[in-house]
Amino acid sequence: MAKVVAISACLLGEVCRYDGTDNLNEALLNRLQNEGATLVGFCPEDDAYGTPRPTMDLVETPQGIRAISNATGEDLSAPIEAYAKAFFDAHPEVTLFIGKDRSPSCGVCSAKCYDGAKMLISTSATGLMAQEAKHRGIEAVDAETYLAKADV
Fold it and tell me: Residue 20 sits in which domain range?
């Protein structure tokens, strides 16, 4: 049975990044195609806030790590977390999560996290959607890491 991979939609070439562009990664897509993977794209930020949209960062707060708007300071986490839960509930067949590196939603171990004063405290944080994948026991990896791995 072919593996089912949840993959950041921007990596598939969908125009859903905050700035209205994509992160098409043909090398990654070719590798996954050669592995016979079934791809299921996702973008919680586009779903919740549309494209283009103001940027957000992960910030450590008394309520935990939250996605905070750089434009308004508003906590944008709830719709992203709700999307992640609904996505994985709708796709229980997913066995691998490939997220866009450094994304506050999709980065697996490469997102930046700041303290309340916007001082950088980590460059290896996990984005909100990736957190849900890991919570459910789904193997999760950043796209650049997956592509750099030796053939599996």
Answer: 4-148
